[in-house]
Amino acid sequence: MKRQYSETTKKQKNPPSGAHLGGKDIMEKTLGVYIHIPFCAGKCAYCDFYSLAGHEKLMPSYQHAVLHHIKEYAPQLDGYLTDTVYFGGGTPSYYGADRLISIFNALKKYGHVLLDAEVTAEVNPDSITKADLVRMRRAGFNRISVGVQSANDALLKSLGRRHNFAAAEEAVKNARDAGFSNVSIDLIFGLPSQSRDEWADTLNRAAALKPEHISCYGLKIEEGSQLYIYKDSPFMPDDDAQADMYLYAVETLSRFGFKQYEISNFARRGYESRHNMKYWFGDEYLGFGAAAHSYIGGVRYNYIADLEKYSENVLSGQNILDLREEISDFERASEYLMLRLRTTRGISEKEYVDIYPCSMDKTINLLRFYESHGWAVFSDDRWSFTPQGFLLSNRLIGEILETQTKQRTEMTKPWEKPEEAVQRSQMTLFDRKPQEVQMFRGI
């Protein structure tokens, strides 16, 4: 039974050579692909994302479903060149190198993957071996993201992590020995009872591993996670302590040669995450797997966050969509501001006005006010936040969106209030990596 796609998707099927979509020649369009692997060895104390422990028996059927989904969607990939592939979770390494390679091979068969594509897999030190890494590198994976989180073994144990820092060091060494020249490390600050000195030690020891990329995420305790019952505990670092740790990370990593390019991400020159940049710059991407998201042709799709139902429905041709949302011009304009201000590249008034014809005079005045407080900076005709501004980004971006809303009412559809469009934009989650944590709330 063939699955029924939306009318928008049908229209994109087998587009003619040279067809135009979104203002570009379709043969020039690039695409990111995200594969969600929801399996893990055990749920970490801070995790509220869609991941499942103890469901290994469902791995074969899930693999079959994802491969079937990719093959079925192949006609939609005609004319697109895949330049980034990202396996996130969950814990992709726990799923097994052979299964990951099989999925990647299917993408290469159907998805026109470029030879220089960035191909990333998230791995945990306790579920990846040197032999796995060798096989993955030979298959075409060229970037590994290691979930280190902390150099403090006691903290790791309290979080339910199944490795110590020595295992993380070994995982990075094994990745190098396997031929990976692009290694990223994930770290979390604001952990229970974590002091700034402990955070400083983690940063120093992580930098000593000489990765090309480091992500530093402030812990945000979400309802549904095991840590939620300790949300108001005195053992949890408060907002001021988290802010101090964040600014210390920016300063320390800069000394080690890592340039901040997004709120939570730091890289050596040329090693910024190309895949995650697609989210922040509003580029198109396709997701496969339970709970995966897609954005293509001006439409955002979310697949159902139910592993068994996803697998059953893919194989039986039934609906797998949890959400289908056409993004209006107003929402795209709001997301341009909201997402690009997450990056150090920031926003350009000329760029914005060229794409979304609307004055930014009041917003520029607001940015000048932020500049006077040390929260924003204007350089090379672009506005961006400073590290201090990033700490307040939730509040500042909210003020910017509210200000810009008042200048875009002429573009509002009759049935859509601009305030509602802004609220939807603010509620949308774009970060796919890491799955475990989000940037901490603005202070």
From TrEMBL:
Q: SUPFAM superfamilies annotated for this entry?
A: Radical SAM enzymes
Q: What does this protein do?
A: Probably acts as a heme chaperone, transferring heme to an unknown acceptor. Binds one molecule of heme per monomer, possibly covalently. Binds 1 [4Fe-4S] cluster. The cluster is coordinated with 3 cysteines and an exchangeable S-adenosyl-L-methionine.
Q: Which family, according to UniProt?
A: Belongs to the anaerobic coproporphyrinogen-III oxidase family. HemW subfamily.
Q: Which UniProt keywords apply?
A: 4Fe-4S, Chaperone, Cytoplasm, Heme, Iron, Iron-sulfur, Metal-binding, S-adenosyl-L-methionine
> Is Protein transport included in the keywords of this UniProt record?
no
The entry's protein name is Heme chaperone HemW
- For the Radical SAM core domain, which residue ranges apply? 25-259
Subcellular location(s) of the protein: Cytoplasm
Species of the source:
Sporobacter termitidis DSM 10068
CDD domains given for it?
Radical_SAM
- Composition-biased stretches (Basic and acidic residues): 1-10
Organismal lineage: Bacteria, Bacillati, Bacillota, Clostridia, Eubacteriales
